[in-house]
Amino acid sequence: MNARFFVKTPTRIVILVLALSALAFVVVIGTFGVIWESWRKPTRDLWASVIIGDSEQSVLERLGNPYRAFDANTAPPDYYVRGYRRRERPITNRVLIYLGRDLILYVWIDQTGRIEEKFVGSS
Predict the structure, then answer these.
(1) Fold of domain 49-122
(2) What whole-number distance in Å separates Cα of residue 73 and Cα of residue 99?
(3) Mean pLDDT, 10 residues at a time, over the chain (123 residues)?
(4) CB 62 within 8 A of CB 36
(5) Are 84 and 64 in contact (CB under 8 A)?
(6) In the chain, where do the E strands start and end?
(7) What is the model's pTM?
(8) Using CA atoms in the order 12, 17, 21, 27, what is the torsion angle rounded to 10 degrees?
(9) Which of 1, 31, 44, 54 has a CA-to-CA distance to 110 between 20 and 30 Å?
(10) What is the pLDDT of residue 48?
């Protein structure tokens, strides 16, 4: 190998510092992402227990009272919670909205009192 390769020129030092900084940034962001998702996990796990076809009563027993609830005939056109992701769709009968950590859960209930759809989003 050429001995000049091992000479520390300012350009090589800058490249090395940038590469190490980028690596440190990736490690910090990756660690933050893992911690963030583990913080959300209890909420995600609880909400995963809500299954299409369950009754509204079983949702209320498992999750408690919702942050908001709307009936189809009394809901405002924009019933969604600002600042959170959402799935835009009409309310067939009723919708229950839950907040937890930085997540939101929409549970749409059909005319028979059963869950027809759910959506989990983040802020």
Answers:
(1) Beta-lactamase Inhibitory Protein; Chain:B, domain 1 (3.30.1450)
(2) 23
(3) 60 71 64 64 94 97 97 95 95 97 95 97 91
(4) no
(5) no
(6) 68-71, 94-100, 103-109, 115-122
(7) 0.73
(8) 80
(9) 44
(10) 95
pLDDT of residue 69: 97
What are the contacts of 113-116 at 24+ separation with CB within 8 A? 113/55, 113/56, 113/57, 114/53, 114/54, 114/55, 114/56, 115/50, 115/51, 115/52, 115/53, 115/54, 115/55, 115/56, 115/59, 116/52, 116/92
Three-state DSSP state, 27: helix
β-bridge mates for residue 28, sequence order = none
Distance, CA of 73 to CA of 81 (rounded, Å) = 18
Closest listed residue to residue 50, CA positions, set 103, 116, 101, 5: 116
